Amino acid sequence: MLYCPHDTADKCRAANKSGNVCELSHWKEVTFQNTNPSTGDCIPNYYCKKRKECTNVHYELENPHVLAKYVPFFYYVNVNRAIEQRKAKNLSDCQWLGLNVNNDALNVLGSGYNVIMINTPNDESNSSIEILTKVADLANEGLLFMWAETTKKLEFCREQIPKWGYKIIDDIVWVKTTPLQRIYRSTTPTQGHFTSSKEHCLVAYKGSGDIRTMPLNRQIDCDVIVSEMRPHGQKPDEIYSMIERLYPTSRKLELFGSKKTPGWITCSPNIDGFQITDREMQKRYETLKSKNKSS
Ligand SMILES: [Zn+2]
Ligand SMILES: [Zn+2]
Question: How do residues 23-68 score in pLDDT, each as one tens digit?
């Protein structure tokens, strides 16, 4: 989809000598009682959960239906096939454990995860980093996706991943955009010359055999995601559908995530409660709870 450089239809009309709007897509401002334009644009925009209280300006597309036209055909084909394959293997449930990622949590999770995604935690002195040394036990074979939003984290990931027996094979880049589809620029003053407009996700493989023998779909997705900045360190939705297309029959685990996703088991201190449909995991969770009660 192509967006008009003037953003809104009003500005476009004012800029065109003919007084007409162009054929590109335009945005419209959505204002509420508390909206105060001097506070700027809301960066989570679509994902802003408090639109009515938030003072920032929110936007919507003038003609949201045009979006559907631009979703490539292969997306439907692969997603439908993936949904069928997942259903056949009971892999479509949304499961979560609102626990800190510690030894107890890792024991409940068990092993056999073909896909693990890690939102690398911030505090490196923190025990959560230490616990990451145990990631090696979560899988014997499969793919690892590890997010690094800073150069420091990227270095940490590059160092850590081989220690878990994984080999780095790819790198996905998320180019963060604002609601109006411009490149996002962080304004945090502690940052250096550059504006933290992107995030890396390292892709790594572990297995006894050749990765070419794994049941992966190949040559489908681009390794660049251009998508809006999300609130609370959430990763773009695109990565989940990308992994779905890449490896539909996999058992998937996300560590330190901030949202629950169908087909995934999410273990994180950033979500509340728990929901587990995996019988074995349920048993291990019950054992942990009774152990905690008696101690
Ligand atoms: Zn225009
Ligand atoms: Zn907002």
Answer: 888 889 888 999 999 998 888 887 788 889 999 999 888 876 554 4
How remote is the CA of residue 55 from the centroid of ligand 2, in Å? Answer: 7
CA of 63 to the centre of ligand 1 (A): 13
CA of 66 to the centre of ligand 1 (A): 15
Complete domains list, the chain, with CATH: 3-69 (no CATH), 93-171+199-214+232-294 (3.40.50.150)
pLDDT in tens, 130-154: 677 788 889 999 999 999 988 888 9
- What does the pLDDT read at residue 48? 85
**Nearest partner of 256 among 143, 105, 136, judged by Cα:** 105
The ligand placed nearest to the CA atom of residue 23 is 1
3-class SS of residue 62:
coil
Instruction: Determine the distance separating the centroid of ligand 1 and the alpha carbon of 5, expressed in angstroms.
Output: 7
